[in-house]
Design brief:
The complex is a heterodimer.
Chain A (H helix, E strand, L loop, with lengths): L14 E10 L7 E11 L4 E5 L6 H8 L7 E6 L2 E2 L7 H7 E4 L12 H5 L1 H5 L4 H15 L3 H4 L9 H13 L5 E5 L7 H18 L2 E6 L2 H5 L4 E6 L2 E6 L1 H6 L1 H6 L6 H11 L11 H15 L1
Helix pairs in contact in A: 5-7, 12-13
Chain B lengths: L20 H4 L2 H16 L4 H17 L4 H6 L5 H14 L10 E5 L2 E4 H27 L2 H12 L9 H31 L11 H7 L1 H24 L18 H19 L5
Antiparallel strand pairs in B: 1-2
Helix pairs in contact in B: 2-6, 2-7, 2-11, 3-6, 5-6, 7-8, 8-10
The chains are: A alpha/beta, B mainly alpha.
């Protein structure tokens, strides 16, 4: 249950999942329960983090967000469209919610970067100038200059550039919600920081609603307005980052490491130092430590 | 439910550990038995013979303790083709195929003779039988067992410079990669659909539907090449040099039980191919 919905107020949720269950390979000997009664909401304009270990059901869950999977047990409502309805407008849902899967660079298939980014808009049957506008907008947003990159061969791109191109391909659909599964996994630290900054800008400049999915607390802790913690297909914690990380010991039992800054502050507190444990980022930890040192001096 | 769950319908190349008699059988015996059965299936032209073969396949599924619904699942994606094949045969073979056969149905220019009707039934049955044999075989055989089996069976041909170990390895890798590629194709389908790709529809316009699949096929090929290269590097890194002087952790040893299977299959195939079935 979301305990605080500060930024969202009382607006209707864009994404709503209610008591969702999922079984893989149903009807075969390889049956596997992946989601057990998951409930979550995403409100317009907020950044929601979904944290869980490998195999916790994160990647399964996000496939419901844009109708790649249809609920058998439970309800999923995307911007007013009920996914349980067999006649639901799936095209509208896929335009509302853009999902960027893990290692999205593998989905790039055209020879030229510009053509690949234009794949989605072309499928929508838009007019050429509109497609061009969208491609330019999407490429500039992710930090690939339209003029410099549109006619580059995709195979000449670096790993970081290729991931940006793939991201632009999803953005060109102009979704209202962007769901990213492990967006920075496998990138070098430079590209990783740049991509993070780009994502922050997306939120501020384009008012995009973001859903960040990761196994890495450091990745989502700083950005999320609210967090959900998945463990073995069940939602075990939710709330603001501070609320979630206050239950630190319990999260560690589930095999999820706290953000490094929070770990440092937590251990200091264990040793009896009067330090606030609300800090999640390096900066916040720095402030807390400074306050502690000044108090001691 | 998901329209994208491809692996659910692929039973070839999966291994289903149930520790049945078939699972414990010497892989060499299993390969020989499967080949004999395949020959029997391919050369049995009678309906009654195919009924016997279908019964034998059901027996194999039971013997391998494979859930029947799972064994039949591989049929689902092939059903449309089976239906189209049957319709084409019924519509166009007419009197051209075995003109001496009596006509059992006639409507306008559509002529169905007894021989054509039999052909339709037999070819559908053959498909089901072949699928059952290969499915049961792969579901009950680990890839390592398969390699060892092929390798030892081909060893007598080494004098003729048949690279038995390499051939076995190629076959194993091919089978092993089927589910891997199915998973990757599924992943790509989902990824392209997520950015507005429309990959279904236009079912009867083959050129258009082939073009529609390019966003899946191009990355899938790249993936296959990459996987292949990774495999090469991994093998070289482990100083792989082929079969020469290689020893095995488990040594294949046949007991009378292992001889039973190919001998029984041989007798059965012989009976099926030689028995004077009336139709």
């Amino acid at each position: 249950m979301p305990s605080t919905v500060d930024s969202a107020g009382s607006r209707a949720p864009l994404l709503m999942v209610e008591d969702l269950w999922h079984t893989y390979m149903i009807g075969t000997p390889f049956e596997q329960l992946a989601l057990r009664g998951v409930t979550l909401q995403v409100f317009p304009g907020e950044v929601v983090g979904i944290i869980g270990q490998t195999g916790s059901g994160k990647s399964t869950l996000i496939q419901y967000f844009n109708g790649l999977m249809r609920p058998v047990r439970g309800r999923v409502i995307v911007a007013g469209h009920d996914l349980g309805d067999p006649r639901v407008d799936i095209v509208a849902i896929r335009q509302t919610v853009g999902v960027v899967f893990q290692e999205p660079e593998s989905q790039v298939f055209e020879r030229l970067v510009g053509d690949d980014v234009a794949y989605g808009p072309r499928q929508l049957g838009l007019a050429l100038p509109e497609i061009r506008d969208r491609v330019r907008w999407a490429m500039e947003l992710v930090g690939l200059s339209f003029e410099a990159f549109k006619d580059r061969y995709t195979f000449t791109l670096s790993a970081g550039e290729l991931r940006k191109a793939a991201l632009a391909g999803v953005l060109a659909m102009r979704p209202r919600v962007l769901v990213l599964d492990e967006p920075t996994a496998g990138l070098d630290p430079g590209s990783r920081d740049e991509l993070r900054a780009r994502l922050d800008a997306l939120r501020v400049r384009e008012h995009l609603t973001l859903v960040l999915v990761s196994h890495d607390m450091d990745e989502v802790a700083r950005r999320g307005d609210r967090l959900y913690v998945l463990h073995r297909g069940a939602m075990v914690a939710s709330g603001t980052p501070q609320e979630v990380f206050r239950a630190g010991a319990r999260l560690e039992d589930l095999g999820l490491a706290l953000p490094e800054a929070a770990q440092v502050l937590g251990r200091l507190r264990e040793r009896g130092y009067p330090v606030s444990t609300d800090g999640l980022s390096i900066d916040e930890a720095e402030h807390a430590l400074a306050a502690l040192l000044e108090g001691a001096a | 439910m998901s329209e994208f769950e491809l692996l659910r319908n692929i039973t070839i190349g999966q291994y289903l550990p149930t520790a049945s008699y078939l699972h414990r059988l010497d892989p060499r015996a299993k390969i020989v038995a499967a080949l004999l059965l395949t020959v029997a299936v391919s050369f049995t032209p009678t309906v009654l013979g195919n009924l016997c073969l279908l019964a034998a396949c059901a027996g194999l599924v039971w013997l391998g303790r494979i859930p029947p619904s799972y064994a039949l699942r591989g049929l689902v994606p092939a059903l449309p083709f089976l239906v189209i094949l049957a319709v084409l045969q019924l519509l166009f073979f007419g009197r051209n195929y075995d003109p001496a056969s009596p006509v059992i149905f006639q409507w306008g220019w559509i002529v169905v003779t007894a021989a054509v009707a039999r052909l339709v039934v037999v070819s559908a049955a053959r498909f089901v039988e072949l699928l059952a044999v290969t499915s049961v075989f792969t579901l009950s055989t680990r890839t390592t067992e398969l390699t060892r089996g092929i390798e030892t069976l081909l060893r007598p041909f080494r004098r003729l410079r048949v690279p038995s170990h390499e051939l076995a390895l190629v076959a194993t890798i091919a089978v092993r990669f089927i589910p891997t590629f199915a998973l990757e194709a599924e992943r790509l389908l989902k990824a392209q659909a997520s950015r507005g790709g429309r990959l279904r529809g236009g079912r009867w316009n083959f050129v258009a539907s082939a073009r529609r699949l390019l966003p899946i096929l191009v990355p899938l090929f790249t993936y296959a090449l990459k996987r292949g290269e990774e495999l090469i590097v991994a093998m070289e890194a482990r100083a792989y040099t082929g079969g020469e002087g290689r020893t095995a952790y488990t040594v294949l040893r046949s007991t009378w039980r292992d001889w039973l299977a190919p001998l029984a299959t041989l007798a059965f195939s012989f009976f099926i191919l030689r028995a004077p079935f009336p139709f």
